[in-house]
Write a structure and sequence with these properties.
309 residues; alpha/beta; 8 helices; 26% helix; six-stranded antiparallel sheet; seven-stranded mixed sheet
């Protein structure tokens, strides 16, 4: 099939590679405009753009894909299908209707659960035991289109946002190619979503990682894993930011207030939460490298009885 591929982050790269490897003709890659990044604000291309250029595929970077000049430009490619994976812009009905087989989307959840942004992180934060990938026929709603294919993925006990991201990217790539084959052959079955079972997720911003020690140790530990590697869970001590990269839950209680450092051992810091104690195993002090807690404690003195805020 002649394909226009739309995607932006790392998650979409594996699907683009799979579509190319499967022998489809990717006539155009559409991705978000380059953005300034780092201290020098140098312009940074998206991972999908870098992948496309490596394969010598034309790249298009509209600021607003719904504008008429963009619609007219895409129409000139006479694509059979649009494949969308974490593109970051909403398509108009005119675009959805343009290709012969419509537009399909690779979504990192088992729709209708976790429609919207950041379904990978939220699955970890909410303590899900199972998630997966859905290939959906796109319609004008946000992740409301008919389901073409789904595959479940089990979360490990120590699953992080990053590790689950890698799992779902791989599953999404192979599932997308399989769905495209079924669409081309006419054997694809489209199942409407159950609106009564729909849930929605919100965008995650950097300040979302600020730990509320009034929450339970289990909730905070899941937050730590879900926001690893981005944007990371963090707290403050003596006016400095401390990122928490790994932690362990203890159901013991100290009687102290949430946020209190109830003990400091040679290799861990124990903090009272709203319910249970959280053992900090890997942390990163502002301006320093992330490190196991034992290494951190050899170079930085932490007082029992102090408070994280």
């Amino acid at each position: 099939m002649k394909v226009i591929f739309m995607g932006t982050p790392d998650f979409a790269v594996e699907t683009l590679e799979a579509v190319i490897k499967a022998g489809h003709e990717v006539v155009l890659v559409v991705t978000q405009p380059d953005k300034p990044k780092g201290r020098g604000n140098a312009m940074q291309a998206s991972p999908v753009k870098e992948c496309a250029l490596a394969h010598r595929i034309e790249v298009y970077q509209p600021r607003k894909i719904r504008e008429q000049e963009c619609v007219d430009y895409l129409e000139g490619f006479a694509a059979d299908i649009f494949v969308v994976a974490a593109f970051g812009q909403i398509l108009s009905q005119e675009l959805l209707d343009m290709p012969k087989y419509g537009c399909i989307n690779v979504h990192a959840s088992l729709l209708p659960k976790y429609r919207g942004a950041a379904p990978i992180q939220w699955a970890v934060i909410n303590g899900e035991e199972m998630t997966g990938v859905t290939i959906q026929q796109m319609d004008i709603g946000i992740d409301t289109g008919d389901i073409i294919a789904q595959e479940e993925v089990t979360l490990d006990a120590d699953e992080t946002g990053g590790s689950l991201f890698d799992k779902l990217a791989a599953v999404g790539a192979s599932l997308c190619v399989k769905a495209m084959d079924e669409i081309a052959s006419g054997s694809a079955i489209r199942i409407p979503q159950d609106e009564s079972a729909a849930t929605h997720t919100s965008m995650i911003h950097k300040d979302f990682g600020h730990i509320d020690w009034n929450k339970s140790a289990k909730e905070i530990e899941r937050l730590v894993r879900g926001l690893n590697p981005w944007p990371s869970a963090y707290t403050h001590l003596d006016g400095k930011t401390v990122k928490i990269w790994k932690a362990t839950v203890s159901e013991n209680e100290s009687g102290e207030k949430p946020g209190c450092i109830v003990d400091v051992t040679k290799d861990a810091i124990l903090v009272q939460t709203g319910e249970g104690i959280l053992q900090l195993d890997e942390i990163q002090l502002e301006g320093k490298k992330r490190m196991p807690c034992d290494a951190f404690l050899r170079g930085y003195h932490i007082e029992k009885g102090g408070y994280f805020a």
